[in-house]
C-alpha cells in the first residue's frame, strides 16, 4: 500500500472505532485512536495474514496486550475483510461476538484473548517461542500500552524474551502518555521506556507512531534485527484524529454521545476527503 | 510382611511426562526454577529442547503456556500449587481458562504435607480456586499409579486441566496392571451400607485405613476415591448417599471450596444427606515433618476413624 492509501485506510478504521464505541455506549476510544495508524500498518502492510484463512499455521500472529482497545483491533480486522464492517455496530451488545475485550474463541482474526493488562505479552512470547521450537519463520507482534507496562508481568515476559533472543518478536508500546488516572508520568512513571527494554536485551526503536514512513522503517529494522527481540516505542496522541478527544485522559474509556459522534464522524469524513484530493 | 511401596505423586508426574514425551513430540514442559522439586528435571534430562525454564515468574509462565498452546503445543506448566494456582490464578483464569486453551497445570507440593516449609508453601486453597474456573478439569490423584494415569488422561483430553500432586512419599494402593482411570469417574474402593467416605488424594489411603477400623466395630463404610474434583462424579455420590444416608468427605485441603464443598453442592440439590467435611479447618498450616502434621491436622486413619464414628 502507498502511504496515501494507508492514511485513507486509517481514517476508515477510526470511523469504525467511533461507530462501535458509540453504538455500545461504552468502550475505549482514546487508546484505539492513538494506535490506529499502527494497527493499519500491521494488518495492511507488515503482517503475513489472510482473512480467508485466519488460522493458517504459518501466519504472523498479533496479540493486543492492551486489550481494552479492542475497537481499534476489530475495526482493523473488519476493514481488512475478516468480518463485515457493519458488525462494528454490535460491539459490546448482548449476544454479539464482538466482546468488550478480544475473544479468540469467537472473533475471526483474533489470535489471543486478552484484556487483563500485562498478560498478552507473555502469550506473544509463548507464540514466538513455539515458532523457534518448530523452526517456523512466522513473526509475532504484541501491542502494549504505556500505562500497561506498569504491570510487573510485562517485565517478566520481556526478561524471558530477551534471554531467549526471540528475534521473531516485536513489542510495540503505544506511548500516548495518558492512562485512566491522568498522565502516566504523574501516576507512576514508566520512563525511560526505551532504556528499560534495552536493559532487558531488546533492540529498541523510538518513532512517531502516526508517521507511516517512520512506522515502515521501524518494522523493517525489526525484521533485520537478529539475535534479540525488538521494542518499538511509538510516541502517539491519545484520541488522535478526533480533535476534541486528543490528549485527554477523560476519553480513555468513555463513549461519545450522539452529537459528539456526529461531530467526530464529520471531522473524519473531511480528513478522508482531504486525503482524496491529494 | 513386605514393606509397602511409597512414592510421592510429584515423582509420578515427572516419570509420566518422560513416558508421554517419548510418544508425543508436541508435549512441552514448563517450570519456574523448581524443576528439581516438581520432578520435571527428569524430563529436562531426556528432552532438553522441550523443557522451558521460565525462571521465578509463574504468571509469565502461565502466559507462555497459553501462547504455546495456541500454536499447537501441549504445555505442562509446573510449579508448587501455591504459585501455579495461587500466584498465577488470574493468568490461569484469563489467559488459559477463558480461551479454553489446551494447557495442563502440574501443581506439586499441595496441602500441609509439604511439611517443614510451613504455611506460606502449604496450599490448601488450590482446589477451591481451580474449580471456580469455567471449563477447568481438576484432578487430585491418590497414588503413583493413579497420578501417572491422570497425567496421560490429561494429555489426551483437549482443554485446560489442573493436576494436584504431593511432596510426601505415599503408599501405592492401586495395581498398575488392572487400574483404569477415567476423568470424572470416581472409584468405589470398598462397599458398605452404613456411611459413605468420599476421599481424595493422600486421604484416600487414610480413609481405607479408617474403614478397616470401623469394620472392626461392625460399621460398614463405603469408601469412594474421588480423583476428579471437577467434573464431579455426581451419579456415584448420589447413589452412595442414597444407600448410606450419611456422607463424610476427606481431603488435604481447606474444608472451604474443595471436595467437601463440591459434594455438598451436589447432595444439597439432588439427594440431601447429612455430610461431615474432614479437611483443614479454615486455618493456615505450619512447619513440621509431613507425617506429624497429617496427624496433628487429623487427616490420618485414626483421626478419620474417630470422627466418622462420632458422626454416625
Automatic annotation (TrEMBL), chain A:
Q: Domain Transketolase N-terminal, which positions?
A: 12-267
The protein's matches in InterPro entries, at most eight in alphabetical order, are given as: THDP-binding, Transketolase_CS, Transketolase_N
Q: Which cofactor does it need?
A: thiamine diphosphate
Any idea which UniProt keywords this protein has? Metal-binding, Thiamine pyrophosphate, Transferase
Q: Which family does it belong to?
A: Belongs to the transketolase family.
Q: What name is this protein filed under? A: Transketolase
UniProtKB/TrEMBL annotation, chain B:
Q: Which residues form the Transketolase-like pyrimidine-binding domain?
A: 7-172
From the Swiss-Prot or TrEMBL record, give the protein name. Transketolase family protein
Query: InterPro entries recorded for this chain?
Result: PDH/Transketolase, THDP-binding, Transketo_C/PFOR_II, Transketolase-like_Pyr-bd, Transketolase_C
Q: What is the lineage of its organism?
A: Bacteria, Bacillati, Bacillota, Clostridia, Lachnospirales
Alphabetical list of CDD domains matching this protein? TPP_PYR_DXS_TK_like
Q: Which source organism?
A: Brotonthovivens ammoniilytica
Coiled-coil region(s) at which residues?
A: none
